[in-house]
Automatic annotation (TrEMBL):
It holds the Pfam family DUF1285_N. This is DUF1285 domain-containing protein. Residues 21-86, 89-174 form the DUF1285 domain. It comes from Sinobacterium norvegicum.
Length: 176
């Protein structure tokens, strides 16, 4: 029996951290809707049950992208399945702030699927309806949990009555 592209990717689940597949090069037709969803806390569910195997969640996360005409999809070279996402698909669970030799501050964020992202011009911090978000990739955001946001706020500075966070040479406004 031939394996589907998704089955082939699943064979990698027990391997070490893989780099992201070339999602921008994969453009199959929409295969349909999958009974899979991501809740507001970044938990993944399939057919009503929570996917508790972290490596499996990480695999699905690695093939998730956002498309303007379909919303969130899981994509392989030959299949594309639409899934439901309640809010931002990923949650920021840890923050590290490092100071480089020139005194420049760099903020790193770790997600619930163990992706690491540097807050910078390509991965900006922004707020939508008071919710702190960092763009992970085009159309795919990370929502910072409360602890992460409070940790970031410790590194904010005030200028003319407004609060800002600096990271990688960029300045991001924080709501007051």
């Amino acid at each position: 029996m031939a394996l589907t592209a998704l089955d082939q990717l699943l064979t990698q689940v027990d391997g070490e951290q893989q780099s992201l597949p070339p999602l921008d090069q994969w453009n199959p037709e929409l295969s349909g809707d999958m009974d899979m969803r991501i809740d507001k806390d970044g938990r993944w569910f399939h057919e009503g049950g929570e996917i508790e195997r972290h490596k499996l969640v990480k695999l699905f996360a690695s093939i998730l992208r956002f498309e303007a005409d379909h919303g969130f999809v899981l994509v392989t070279p030959v299949e594309k399945w639409k899934i439901a996402v309640a809010a931002a698909p990923f949650v920021g669970i840890d923050v590290e702030v490092e100071v480089e030799t020139e005194g420049e501050q760099v903020v790193w964020l770790r997600t619930n699927v163990d992706e690491i992202v540097r807050i910078d011009c390509d991965h900006p911090l922004r707020f939508e309806q008071g919710v702190p978000l960092v763009q992970l990739r085009k159309g795919v955001d990370v929502r910072l949990n409360r602890a992460c946001y409070y940790h970031l706020a410790e590194f904010a500075y005030e200028e003319k009555g407004e609060f800002y966070l600096r990271s990688a040479g960029q300045q991001f406004a924080l709501p007051s």
